[in-house]
Amino acid sequence: MNTFDQKEHSHRRYNPLLDEWVLVSPHRAKRPWQGQQEKLSEEVRPKYDEKCYLCPTNTRANGEKNPDYSEPYVFTNDFSALQNEQVVKIENSTEAYSELFKTEPETGICRVVCFSPRHDLTLPEMEVTNIESVVRTWIHEYKTLGADPAINHVQIIENKGSIMGCSNPHPHGQIWAQKSIPTLVKKLDQQQKYYFEQHKITLLTDYITAELAKQERIVAENEDFVVLVPYWAVWPYETMIISKRNIQSIESFSAREITNFARVLKVLTTKYDNLFETSFPYSAGIHQAPTNGQNNEHWHFHMNFYPPLLRSATVKKFMAGYELLAEAARDITPEQSADRLKSLSEKHYKAL
User: Alpha carbon of 282 to those of 210, 236, 307, 315: distances in Å?
Assistant: First the structure.
């Protein structure tokens, strides 16, 4: 009987943040690949697009005109997924199988954050000082929206690239603020709380301590933040940014942490672009304490990046078959992903 080697043998890895497992099959990466590996031809975007509803001074679909902004610009989404209208639910206790058909009204606010007035700049192409302005905007929105007693959770996200469902190439993100704690966030809350109660320290404090000691999955770091490929990563080049200090939310960032968070965002997103020499698509979001007024000392700030690209700018990973019906799975190990990302230059490929 052979000795188990996680670099060679199929195995499962546990995600303590979500109480979930992922199947890792490193031997499958050796199978012959007959797909294409070409670069994606990118359209050169202008600094200003008169047809873009996010560019300064342009009129949006609802008839409102954007100001001639020079800093990050925030407005309430014209096609918000959440409605802020208070409604009354009439219970019908006589309905058969009522416990199987539950419905609850949900209220909230969705906002759009334009990162820059420049139509052609994404985060890795922006200056660190300009990314700092984006971070300060996120902080302001988290504090302002979270101060509303009707809002219990504020989710900051960015979908980059058309294959991630981004409907406009102008660099921007979204903020969803709502009454309920979303399903995934509730799991994060429960798992972190359980770990904190057992160990009197946050789960991610112990995790990054162990990761920094191993140095197997570290992509980049500075004084205040670590970028790594999680041990339990599902997507090929999935990463996390984790604060070294036990910070519950972005609201508690110091001035230095704002700068260092902006720096690490630029480093990571630049490495992503350099990986396949294309504007790298991903879905990203910040996970931080809910704004429900509870004791959230068990929470530890982190930001997740989920990019779909696998082998080139045009080959992506799909969740299909076993993954949709049984459990998440991956073929290359997180260690292999981390090595490749770490080796990439921090200078943007377009400038080479």
Answer: 27, 11, 4, 14
Question: Among 119, 153, 170, 172, which one carries the catalytic annotation?
Answer: 172
Burial of 84 (0-12, 13-18, 19+ CB in 10 A): middle
3-state secondary structure of 146: helix
Name the residue among 157, 237, 212, 202 with its Cα closest to residue 16: 202
172: annotated active-site residue: yes
Instruction: Provide the pairing of β-strand 328-330 with 20-24.
Output: parallel
Beta carbons of 237 and 272 less than 8 angstroms apart? yes
pLDDT tens digits, residue range 36-49? 444 555 678 899 99
Q: Please, which residues bridge with residue 328 across strands?
A: 22
Rounded to whole angstroms, how far apart are CA atoms 196 and 299?
9
| Whole-angstrom distance, CA of residue 134 vs CA of residue 241 | 16
CA diameter of the chain: 70
Rounded CA separation 6/332 (Å): 11
Decide: helix, strand or coil at residue 125: helix
Q: Give residue-wise pLDDT tens across range 133-169.
A: 999 999 999 999 999 999 999 999 999 988 887 878 9
This prediction's pTM: 0.93
**Closest to 156 (Cα-Cα) out of 140, 181, 138:** 138
Contacts of residue 165, Cβ cutoff 8 Å, sequence gap at least 6: 159
